[in-house]
UniProtKB/TrEMBL annotation:
Secretion signal span: none
Chain ranges of the ABC transmembrane type-1 domain: 75-277
Keywords: Cell membrane, Membrane, Transmembrane, Transmembrane helix, Transport
One Pfam family matching this protein: BPD_transp_1
Any Gene Ontology CC annotation: plasma membrane
Record's bilayer topology term: Multi-pass membrane protein
Localisation: Cell membrane
Name of the featured protein: Carbohydrate ABC transporter permease
GO BP annotation list: transmembrane transport
InterPro entries linked to this entry: MetI-like, MetI-like_sf
Entry's transmembrane regions: 12-35, 79-98, 110-131, 143-162, 183-208, 258-277
The family this protein is said to belong to: Belongs to the binding-protein-dependent transport system permease family.
Primary residence: membrane
Length: 292
């Protein structure tokens, strides 16, 4: 007969749980405030008041912000950059990592050394800007995609994952007549689905949250990404921000509810997708970080 001994909670445990609970509440309260203000009816909104729940429920702010051309242009730009950028990131990262995982490839050590070098050293903002300018990519969406096709950390993790794939799988495929391209498409990619799903989310979130590069490379306001528009709304809220968002001369809806609605709409897609792909984060990255 087995007995289960329960651990007795000490005073330290109670204090620890209390502090962690308070810290969690402090992290959650800003999100609650943003959602509450964005859902508050314009007539019921009182400035400089904390809203835990909307005083009077209304979607007027969302209808207003979705009717403005500037927000829709920013949403379209962000979706385009995220879609194209994520696909190209996956193609370049997984094909390059597959090549680096082949020990017999000529120049493999040199290329791997160059990858590790970029992990330790970065050219900086000014050389990157001059490079983008010389390539003629300023004020173009490609300025946010081409310089970030892949990165050293992603390559190393994916390469380590592919190193753990048994070579017998590839040998069996080659005996059946498959060349390197078909081995990669029909054997490596299906086996790499956990890593593929994890890095799809990594790259998509990175492109969706593009802010600094969009701020320095995109000069046309019609090509702004959502994050740049949100910064304009929140930081420059007294002047250009609300005007660029399409505020009318007779402001019926408070500016604060418009800003909060824009913030919610900007983070809503990631919040909706993340819970379904969260399990792939740990699984994909851990499989790529341990060989064997």
């Amino acid at each position: 007969m087995s007995f289960v001994h329960k651990k007795r909670l000490t005073l330290f445990d109670y204090i620890n749980y209390l502090l962690l609970g308070l810290i969690s509440l402090l992290c959650v309260f800003p999100f609650i405030y943003v959602f509450s203000v964005s859902l508050t009816h314009p007539d019921a909104y009182i400035p400089f008041t904390f809203y835990l729940f909307p005083e009077q429920f209304s979607l007027a702010s969302y209808k207003y912000i979705l009717s403005t051309n500037t927000f829709l242009d920013a949403l379209r730009s962000t979706a385009l950059i995220t879609g194209i950028g994520t696909v190209l990131n996956l193609i370049f990262t997984f094909t390059f990592a597959y090549a680096l995982s082949k020990k017999h490839m000529l120049g493999r050590k040199l290329m791997l050394g160059c990858v590790v070098f970029t992990l330790l050293f970065n050219a900086g903002i000014i050389p990157n800007y001059l490079l983008v300018k010389e390539l003629g990519l300023l004020n173009s969406y490609w300025a946010l995609i081409w310089p970030t096709l892949t990165n050293a950390w992603s390559l190393i993790v994916v390469k380590s994952f592919m190193d753990s794939i048994p070579e017998e799988l590839e040998d069996a495929a080659r005996i059946d007549g498959c060349n390197d391209l078909f081995v990669f498409l029909r054997i490596i990619l299906p086996v790499s689905m956990p890593a593929l799903a994890a890095f799809t989310l990594f790259f998509a979130v990175a492109h969706w949250n593009t802010y600094f590069n969009a701020l320095i490379y995109l000069t046309d306001a019609k090509k702004w990404t959502l994050q740049v528009l949100i910064k304009t709304l929140v930081v420059d809220s007294d002047s250009a921000g609300v005007a660029q968002a399409g505020a009318a001369e007779d402001k019926i809806i408070p500016e604060e509810t418009i800003r909060m609605a824009a913030v919610v709409l900007a983070m809503l897609p990631i919040l909706a997708v993340y819970p379904f792909l969260q399990k792939y984060f740990a699984k994909g990255v851990m499989l790529g970080s341990i060989k064997g």
